[in-house]
Design goal:
alpha+beta; two-stranded antiparallel ribbon
Length: about 220
């Protein structure tokens, strides 16, 4: 069976200021009702691209702002457990986020507020994709590829791909599934890796462990 090659791409996540900002939880809820969906996408996934010396306590900007600037640890915890991978659309994620905030507002006597110089500034994301010269021609080459991938390539093929692929999976799983010929199980194993609570290093390690384990068991 002829296998279509896998063409590796790279990407950058550009930050575009929206001019929208919020100083308290009421304002954050109101802005979320109308802010561009790419802004919500950025504040959930953009952290994967930001260099950090330690793992952040919270995985999205809304939870981090609630903890650091509103000083509301309970709200931060509620916002942090919203996994955007499980939302079927940007609007579903928006609705879930607003629902958590409105419940918090109902429970509080006054809306938590930040200092004037600690407001939440909404930024919009734009993904810019680049072609690379890297191509693999068979699944056995995937484990060796993983260590060579830039963060942009991992983001594009393993995270951003959910917006482009049938069944909201990643490009590796989609490619393996298209090959068929016994790779359906490996496709499902790779698709089961959930990226939101993992950093880029952990994603690479989980991918390599999954790929190497399967190929070894199959004697490939």
């Amino acid at each position: 069976m002829e296998i279509n090659p896998f063409h590796v791409k790279d990407c950058a996540l550009l930050r575009i200021a929206t001019g929208e900002h919020a100083q308290n939880l009421n304002e954050l809820r109101d802005k979320l009702l109308t802010v561009h969906p790419e802004s919500i996408y950025y504040h959930y996934w953009g952290r994967k691209f930001r260099p950090r010396f330690t793992d952040p306590e919270y995985n999205n900007d809304f939870a981090e702002w609630a903890y650091q600037n509103l000083h509301d640890a309970e709200l931060a915890e509620r916002l942090s457990v919203i996994d955007p991978s499980h939302a079927s659309s940007p609007e579903e994620l928006r609705a879930e986020l607003i629902d958590v905030i409105e419940k918090c507002l109902y429970e509080r006597e006054t809306a938590p507020a930040s200092r004037q110089d600690e407001q939440f500034y909404f930024v919009r994301a734009q993904v810019v994709v680049f072609d690379t010269d890297c191509v693999i021609n068979k699944p056995e080459e995937l484990p060796g590829l993983i260590d060579k991938l830039s963060d942009g390539s991992v983001f594009y093929h393993f995270i951003n791909a959910a917006r482009r692929t049938e069944n909201r999976t990643n490009d590796f799983s989609a490619w393996l599934s298209d090959i068929g010929d016994g790779y359906g199980e490996l496709s499902a194993l790779v698709s089961a890796i959930e990226p939101y609570f993992l950093n880029m290093t952990d994603i690479r390690e989980r991918l390599k462990t999954t790929l190497n384990g399967y190929l070894k068991r199959q004697g490939k």
